[in-house]
Amino acid sequence: MTKVPTVHRIALLFNGNKIFDRDIIAGIGEYLSSTRASWDLYLEEDFRCRPQGIERWQGHGIIADFDDPTMQEALSRVQLPVVAVGGSYADEADYPKDLPYVATDNFKLVKLAYDHLIEAGLQNFACFSLPQADVNRWAQEREKAFESLMQRDGIQGHVYRGVGTSAQSWDTAVEQQIAWVRSLPKPIGIIAVTDARARQLLQACLFAGIAVPEQVALIGIDNDPLARILTRVPLSSVIQGTLEMGRTAAHLLHQMLHGHGAQFSDKRILVPPAGINVLASSRHEARNHPHVMQAMHFIRQYACQGIKTEQVADYVGVSRSSLDWYFRRELGRSVHDEILRFKLDAAKRLLQQAHGNVAEIAVSCGFTSVQYMHAVFKRELGCTPREYQEQLMQGAASSQSSSLPLQQEPIHGD
Questions:
Q1: Which residues fall in a coiled-coil region (predicted)?
Q2: Are residues 235 and 131 in the same domain?
């Protein structure tokens, strides 16, 4: 008879309203799906984290977000196995003591964003951070990473923290962000410590008529789909290795539950970023003519609303023929071609998400009909939109089937 695995009651103490925490929880779920671990998970119904009274919880183990100092304090009185998750620290003394700790590598997150902006040909750099506070220690660590990279390369970087987000301070915050961006040398690459922060700054730039990415190339961290939906110009972002962090944290706790806790005391695992999602906000290309820069600024915001060349020319304040001449001289293509190129990129992104039908995608990307989008795909990519989507799905399935399982230490007993 097959032995039934022991059921362990595990608390996941995370704030699921944050993409970072949700992806870690998803990684934990992936680990449980791939092993014989049998866990009864305690997680607040609203995905919020309330550690009050956690020391009286009758369970077997905990995985918790230690970026919040109140969490560390609450769990200091707990006698259960605990795996801590959070951001990495430049100073070893800042890590929690006597606990295994799985961290996102803050230095590598910032370095990946910085290297991307360098490859775009930029020479000026800035960091948009958060106000200094105990709950924002991870943001200060990203500041430190940015400053160390600037010092290493002999560059004068610019750091701006601004104010926290609130309804009362919002208008003032936007005004201050615009003033800061206008004071910076141009063109400039700006790394925001989160996508939420990047979205605020991108919105401020668009409001002030500051061209993104010609004058300001902007990249965030988190690859948050909600932040992308809420911006007219698609936002580039560093993808954190949060799924791997969740899998790793679950693996460590699984080992601890089976008597291997001593070997993991003070164990630290730094997980590098999973990659970078490069979209329009950081695709900087030098534009020599101001009319081309202005036109690109308008096209990025409104291409998917079905704008025509005449509307772009009206915005810039020149004739259609003159604007086309500037475009052909600088970019080698017409204004119409540039609008179409942006709509095609938007359609490809939506098809990659594998939801929504082709007709809905055609409308949302500004194509006059499904047939027209079909013709553009055939002409530019050699396939129909549906064939393009099927190719993506086949590629993803092939990648999954060929990936090797995570190499882990054996777990003894059930």
A1: none
A2: yes
Q: What are phi and psi of 154, to 5 degrees?
A: 65, 35
Contacts of 155 (CB under 8 A, 6+ apart): 123, 124, 125
Instruction: State the Cα–Cα distance between residues 40 and 390, nearest whole angstrom.
Output: 37
139 and 205 in a single domain? The answer is: yes
**In the block, which residue shows the tokens 């005391």?**
265
Say what the pTM is: 0.78
Tens of pLDDT, residue by residue over 179-237, are: 999 999 999 999 999 999 999 999 999 999 998 998 999 999 999 998 888 888 999 99
Q: Are residues 85 and 158 in the same domain?
A: no
Same domain, 100 and 112: no
Do 120 and 234 lie in one domain? The reply is: yes
Residue 403: count other Cβ atoms within 10 Å of its Cβ. Answer: 8
- Return the amino acid letter for 263: Q
- Are 281 and 219 within 8 A, CB to CB? yes
Query: What gap in Å lies between CA 199 and CA 192, rounded to an integer?
Result: 9
Residues 115 and 219 in one domain: yes
Residue 398: the pLDDT is 59
Domain membership of residue 162 as a residue range? 106-239+277-282
pLDDT number for residue 2: 52
Is 278's pLDDT higher than 80? Answer: yes
